[in-house]
């Protein structure tokens, strides 16, 4: 085997060193990610320096980049908390969050890469205990769930936003009560529903009765007004008018004899 020329050996070593330097200097960040630059010779991460965005970057080989996902992320969380009367309530929630992009350096310096377990999880648990402790199991199970969700979100947001975490939403997927309490609440809700239906039927029946009374009263008033307006003279004129029309009918033969008690003609015979 031939020996390498004396000039070729340093070149080979130089190429190897160049490859190593380039490998340590080249950094590629995916979409939805950002990098915090750790400067070994400059005291670590400079907090007020903008993070590195997605794409290809060249850095000094003695520095390094800490990769953070900056897209919205979901953290499922199951919690056991106490209601206002001391009953154990289990919440199943989803927390939607992402790091504060502009303050990634501060987030890394103060909380580190494990900021979720160090800040977000304790904050959501503390807020859930505080909020749920103000409500009864019945409120948690039915009418107040949306309000409770909003209150937990607001209390958590106040804790995490000053610590460079952006909280987007908190979704309460499920509220689990002790079985006996849940059954008691369901029975009560069923009874309330039946009571409302019964009251509705009573109100409907009452309105129908009032309608019949009003219609009957209207007819009675109309008859009374009509009776008051019908004098003997008017009745006689109406009778004569009807008699004339009847006598003009081609299907009748009219014989008038005498008069009735009221002075009206008497009509006999027809065909």
TrEMBL record:
Primary localisation category: membrane
Protein location: Membrane
Record Pfam families: Band_7 (PF01145)
Single GO term (MF): peptidase activity
Keyword Hydrolase: yes
Keywords: Hydrolase, Protease
Membrane topology term: Single-pass membrane protein
GO biological process: proteolysis
Signal peptide per UniProt: none
GO cellular component terms given for this protein: membrane
Domain Band: 25-189
Alphabetical list of PANTHER family matching this protein: PROHIBITIN, PROHIBITIN 1
Name of the protein this chain belongs to: Regulator of protease activity HflC, stomatin/prohibitin superfamily
Taxonomic path: Bacteria, Pseudomonadati, Bacteroidota, Flavobacteriia, Flavobacteriales
